[in-house]
Amino acid sequence: MKGALLSTDGLGVRYGSFTALSEVSLSIGANTIHSVIGPNGAGKTTLFHALTGRVRPSAGRIDFNGHDITALTDDRRVRRGLARSFQVTSLFHRLSVRENLRLAAQGRTPWQALKMWQPAERNQDATAIADSILERLELTRVAGRSAEELSHGQQRRLEVGMAMASRPLLILLDEPTSGMGIDDIATMKRLIADLGRDHTVLFIEHNMGIVMDISDRVTVMQSGRKLVEGAPGEIRDNPEVRRAYLGSMMTGGRA
């Protein structure tokens, strides 16, 4: 795909004799919102693990922004511009919302953390990034609260914000609306759509209303393989996809 930011060719992951991912070839266009759907056990999270360096592929190749990153460690992938949020929130619960974001922003230049004699507030670039993201997340009014005091929906938004703070080219979101109420889902949906203004977004999601409303492309997975890929309308109208995964869920429920 011309203009692809991330691509895989024949990507595979094996755990002993079990094949979790097999011959997956993807092409994620720059500045697009691309979703991955499929039932539990389809290989979606394993795919994310392979892309982010959490697991080593058994086969295939991963290219990101013109470079082969297949053998790179996860921290080196982050420095190249790849960031991820997880299905289970991973925050500094006793620190304030602003401090969580400031630390994430500071992680772009880890050597700054070694300046232990310098007050955190002196890192003006990281503080400015944190404050701008707070506004975008609609969390400014709770900036001084500890992360553990936030609602589940607010914690999920904060985790997305921490991924944003590293100024990545690509953000991977693993079920960003998991466990949310209706109001929080609507807010997260707006946030993900807004991310498409200045990031490429690849996300796993079970809420078909979100997938169909904001995705540019949708990849459907089954048993560790890519079943089909296309525009939301093509996926919605694909009889095989409807039978296998979606059915009445196309109206906005969970697959």
Lateral strand order in the biggest sheet? 6-7-8-3-9-10
Gap from first CA to last CA:
28 Å
According to CATH, what is the topology of the largest domain? Rossmann fold
Please, how many helices?
9
Shape: globular
Tell me the structural class: alpha/beta
CATH architecture of the largest domain: 3-Layer(aba) Sandwich
For the record, the count of structural domains works out to: 2
CATH class of the largest domain: Alpha Beta
H-E order: EEEHEEHEHHHEHEHEEHH
Low-confidence stretches: 248-255
Fourth-level CATH superfamily of the largest domain: P-loop containing nucleotide triphosphate hydrolases
Largest sheet: 6 strands, mixed
Report the strand count.
10
What is the mean predicted local confidence, pLDDT? 87
Please provide a written account of the structure.
The chain is α/β, with parallel strands linked by helices and 255 residues long. It folds into two domains: 1-81 and 168-255, P-loop containing nucleotide triphosphate hydrolases (Rossmann fold); 89-166, no CATH class. The protein is built from nine helices and ten strands. It is globular, with a radius of gyration of 18 Å. The protein starts with a strand and ends in a 9-residue tail after the last helix.
